[in-house]
Specification:
The chain has 33 helices and seven strands. By secondary structure, the chain is mainly alpha-helical. Among the domains are: 113 residues, Alpha Horseshoe (Serine Threonine Protein Phosphatase 5, Tetratricopeptide repeat), CATH 1.25.40; 100 residues, Arc Repressor Mutant, subunit A, CATH 1.10.10.10; 107 residues, no CATH class.
Length: 628
């Protein structure tokens, strides 16, 4: 046995590359060099070495040349190559060729052909009684089923696979199995379990000596951070992953990383950087794969190019539908429906069909966890669907998710300090996407007050926000709150002008504040009821000290919402649209749960359209209100 062969069998691939690069003699050494280059992530170099060895007649090099074409994203070339070379192979090499051939077909959108071919390879390995290689193919098959949304089949294959893959001598496949298990947990919203699996995989990873596995696990870690809203770590992990993905040259890894980075940039309003990330993939937009077309459509929607977004998302939906990639299709259709809604298109023609397709698939897949960030961003669309008779029934299972959505638009690109302040149903302040907490409960009300009423003196502030405190106590408390806000958010955030004994306060010019309250009132003014309902999560500044200023804002907010909902109920009643009356009444009572006339209108409308159980519920609620 040659030294190169011994090093290869010991999985010391870097040593094989060092020994043979530029010095490989004959077909076998060329094949060993090419495969070792794949293992260390040098795909372009691997193609050259494997091409030479394959032309010289090495059968394993012939199989792995097709594999490296697949890894480089040249799926059609890989398929054409395997069609030619596979009939000349036999035994394990033919099964290996069937596996990579099937994966290439799957990635090109020939889903069923790809699945059948990989299944044939798996059955062949089972017949050979070759446990570990067969388990690797089963793992590959499980990943394909996960992508198509067949989680049950993926879980069944994975459960058997994890135990068949050793974690000691060569832990690479074992880490891949853990990664897939982690992704199944993410799909079900089981983030604590996913974190445990991630930690297990990280412990074993160093023994694998695999840059590609390191990159793939970083991708899974990034997805966990995204779903748990750890925005800062998410950005760090993606930035760490990008050069590694470029270095490896792995087509799918680069595609995923650049798509995620572009979306992250656009969420922060950095639309130029987002587009640069997409273009850095290296191909023209007309030749982009479905993932980049979909991401581009989402970017267009976020920056207000709604017609362009519809065109891109429609194109992406067609590609994903043809490829059988249902989870990705769901996400695209949600964003397509949101773009159509904001365009003002006929809901029956554009919004409802896309939304219905997405929601129907989501309910079948039961993988709502991974879509939570999208639900939050598109909360206006989902609340709109709750008021539409054609989609309201489908939306019922989403109510739990909708309760946690903020629905606040993101600030524009700028060099300013960006503050996103939640005032409805909770008090929270986010600086550049990261939540900032305070020890004094007056800090958030003070910040909101100055955002809405710039140029107020300390006396005016304390009389409006803390009228029940004596002058000395209130004045001291205002000073303490101002100091804490400055300490936590930046000393230039609150500025003052005027005489020393009576200065007036305002927010600094380099601060941009987004208030959910102002967006809600804007939505009411524009009669965008769905958007207003998406933003309303409860009382204004709950838990704030009692004051006429806070009470007045709360009352004005309730009145604005209920007035618009009442007007829509009257229109629906005049059109005998009883189902819409019930839907609007339900939303009205979420804002003002004690309005007896609305309860009565709901019962009257429900007699025409509701089920006996639903009517009984509404009637019982009305009676409880009447006799309490």
């Amino acid at each position: 046995m040659s030294q190169a062969q011994r090093l290869f069998e010991a999985r010391q691939y870097e040593a094989v590359v060092t020994l043979l690069l530029g010095h490989a003699k004959g077909a076998r050494e060329g094949a060993l060099l090419g495969i070792a280059l794949i293992r260390v992530g040098r795909l372009a170099d691997a193609e050259v070495a494997l091409t030479r060895a394959a032309m010289q007649g090495d059968a394993e090099a012939q199989v792995e040349l097709g594999n490296v074409l697949r890894l480089l994203g040249r799926f059609e070339d890989a398929i054409d190559y395997f069609e030619t070379v596979t009939p000349t192979l036999s035994g394990e090499l033919q099964l290996r060729a069937l596996r990579w051939w099937g994966v290439a077909e799957f990635r090109l959108g020939r889903v069923q052909d790809g699945l059948k071919r990989v299944e044939r390879a798996w059955h062949g390995y089972l017949a050979l009684g070759d446990g570990e290689p067969g388990a690797r193919v089963a793992l590959c098959l499980a990943e394909m089923h996960r992508v198509t949304g067949n989680e049950k089949r993926a879980q069944a294959l994975l459960t058997e696979t994890v135990h068949a893959l050793p974690a000691d001598e060569y832990p690479g496949p074992h880490v891949e199995a853990l990664k897939l298990l982690l992704e199944l947990h993410l799909g079900r919203g089981e983030y604590r379990e996913a974190r445990v699996i991630l930690d297990r995989a990280k412990l074993v990873l160093p023994q694998a000596h695999s840059p590609r596995l390191t990159a793939l696990l970083l991708g899974s870690e990034a997805e966990l951070c995204r779903l748990t809203r750890d925005t800062q770590t998410y950005g760090w992990v993606l930035e760490e992953l990008r050069p590694l993905a470029d270095q490896l040259g792995d087509h799918d890894l680069r595609l995923w990383t650049l798509s995620r980075l572009a979306e992250l940039y656009s969420l922060h309003g950095q639309h130029g950087k987002a587009l640069e990330a997409l273009l850095s993939f290296g191909s023209m937009p007309a030749d982009w794969p479905a993932e980049l077309v979909a991401t581009h459509g989402i970017l267009q929607r976020r920056r207000g190019d709604l017609r362009g977004a519809q065109e891109s998302l429609t194109r992406a939906a067609g590609l994903l539908r043809a490829a059988g990639r249902i989870p990705e299709l769901c996400r695209v259709q949600l964003h397509a429906a949101a773009a159509a809604l904001r365009c003002g298109d006929d809901p029956g023609q554009a919004v409802v069909p896309a939304l219905t397709e997405a929601v129907t698939h989501l309910l079948r897949l039961r993988q709502l966890g991974e879509f939570t960030p999208d639900f939050e961003e598109l909360s206006e669309l989902l609340h709109y669907a709750l008021l539409e008779p054609d989609t309201a029934t489908l939306m019922e299972p989403f109510l739990e998710h909708l309760a946690d959505l903020s629905g606040v638009p993101r600030p524009p690109e700028s060099g300013m300090t960006l503050l996103n302040v939640k005032t409805l149903g909770r008090q929270a302040v986010f600086k550049d996407g990261i939540e900032v907490t305070f020890t004094r409960k007056g800090c958030v009300p003070l910040l909101v007050y100055l955002a809405l009423n710039p140029g107020r003196t300390r006396v005016e502030i304390q009389l409006d926000l803390w009228p029940d405190k004596d002058a000395a106590t209130a004045g001291s408390y205002v000073r303490q709150c101002i100091k804490e806000v400055r300490d936590r958010l930046g000393h230039g955030l609150i500025q003052h002008q005027g005489p020393h004994h009576a200065p007036w306060y305002r927010l600094g010019p380099e601060v941009h504040v987004e208030l959910d309250l102002t967006h809600l009132l804007d939505a009411v003014d524009r009669r965008e009821t769905a958007r207003a309902l998406a933003l309303y999560r409860g009382d204004f500044l709950p838990g704030a000290d009692a004051s006429e200023w806070v009470d007045t804002k709360r009352d004005a907010l309730r009145y604005a919402l209920t007035f618009e909902l009442s007007a829509q109920m009257v229109r629906a009643q005049s059109q005998h649209d009883h189902r819409r009356v019930v839907l609007l009444a339900n939303q009205y009572l979420r804002v003002d749960p004690y309005d007896r006339s609305v309860m009565e209108d709901r019962v009257t409308a429900a007699r025409h359209v509701a089920s006996p159980q639903e009517l009984a519920q509404y009637t019982a609620e009305l009676r409880r209100h009447m006799y309490n």
